[in-house]
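To illustrate the input format used throughout this study, we show a single complete record. The first block contains the structure-token representation of the backbone; no residue identities are included at this stage. The design step must infer an amino acid for every position from geometry alone.
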């Protein structure tokens, strides 16, 4: 009987030990996507928690607010086209080259976390095409920046010299590489949300407008192949422009749409143009290179206009439409370069 209390204590201790929770099992190695998602989440949260960013995030929530969830996934169908025209004189005869990218259909997939967005545009219907586009944007209520890299290899056009067409460009070898940085600032950022209709990180509840200041940098490299008597031409253009415009979002009470119109003209205050021409194979003609730089010699302009509309469903799903038109024209010592681009798209997305 003396052993019974000892056995009872041992039994109770054993039960208590067995009831204790097991030590946590370390999780298995996560996938690359999970690790990348955690990294983006932590980095974005730290940036958004900085005092300057918190100051710029101040807003009147009766005019616009953030939808539920932090992540936004979207798929977009794009229809776009652009045109380049270069004309001038080489001292002997006038020349003109016209390149146009016919209306082409492409698809875009994008993912956003709060105000940070990344998207990729490609053409799934033309596998031989090398036309691609990458976009990265970061928006707060007051400030924003957008980075774009794009390649186009589907140009068609012709070259004239002395008023006579000397070559037709069929798209084989004609290419364009474009890198652009656009930054903007919103004056009435407490009531007007610029990213509400463009990356759907906010929902505008009341109509509002604001002055918009913009700063842009573009590096445009275009190569025209040597065809017939026409030499190979390579144009390296670097442009910096700044200006101010106005944006307004109209929110009708009945239909639940957000319709935004933005017009932003800018003055080109720095322009660098480098032109290189290389003769066709077999011709014993040296390569020519001209380097032209312009700094506030002539008032040249860069203009962009945007129209966008978004409708939300249950504060989580949305459908959107947008149209963009931009271009510039530069005149330097008898040489004129004109570029224009248009794009429309239809977007479907969800917030989670």
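Output of the design step:
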């Amino acid at each position: 009987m003396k052993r019974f209390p000892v056995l009872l204590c041992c039994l109770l201790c054993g039960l208590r030990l067995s009831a204790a929770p097991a030590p946590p099992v370390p999780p298995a190695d996560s996938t690359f996507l999970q690790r990348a998602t955690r990294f983006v989440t932590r980095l974005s949260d730290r940036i958004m928690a900085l005092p300057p960013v918190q100051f710029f995030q101040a807003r009147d929530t009766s005019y616009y607010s953030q939808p539920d969830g932090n992540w936004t996934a979207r798929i977009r169908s794009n229809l776009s086209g652009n045109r380049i025209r270069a004309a001038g004189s080489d001292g002997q005869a006038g020349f003109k080259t016209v390149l146009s990218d016919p209306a082409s259909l492409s698809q875009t997939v994008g993912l956003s976390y709060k105000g940070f967005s990344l998207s990729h545009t490609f053409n799934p219907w033309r596998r031989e095409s090398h036309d691609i586009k990458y976009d990265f944007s970061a928006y707060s209520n007051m400030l924003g920046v957008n980075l774009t890299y794009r390649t186009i290899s589907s140009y068609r056009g012709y070259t004239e010299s002395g008023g006579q067409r000397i070559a037709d460009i069929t798209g084989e070898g004609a290419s364009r590489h474009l890198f652009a940085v656009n930054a903007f600032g919103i004056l009435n950022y407490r009531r007007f949300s610029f990213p509400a209709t463009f990356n759907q990180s906010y929902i505008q509840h009341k109509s509002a407008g604001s002055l918009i200041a913009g700063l842009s940098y573009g590096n445009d490299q275009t190569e025209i192949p040597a065809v017939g008597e026409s030499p190979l031409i390579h144009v390296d253009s670097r442009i910096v422009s700044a200006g101010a415009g106005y944006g307004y979002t109209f929110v009708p009470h009945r239909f639940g749409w957000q319709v935004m119109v933005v017009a932003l003209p800018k003055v080109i205050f720095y322009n660098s143009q480098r032109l290189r021409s290389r003769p066709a194979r077999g011709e014993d003609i040296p390569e020519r290179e001209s380097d032209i730089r312009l700094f506030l010699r002539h008032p040249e302009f860069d203009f962009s206009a945007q129209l966008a509309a978004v409708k939300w469903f249950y504060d989580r799903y949305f459908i959107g439409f947008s149209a963009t038109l931009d271009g510039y024209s530069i005149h330097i010592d008898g040489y004129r370069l004109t570029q224009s681009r248009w794009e429309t798209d239809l977007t479907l997305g969800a917030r989670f």
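Structural context for interpreting the output: The chain has a mean pLDDT of 78. The longest helix spans residues 3-19.
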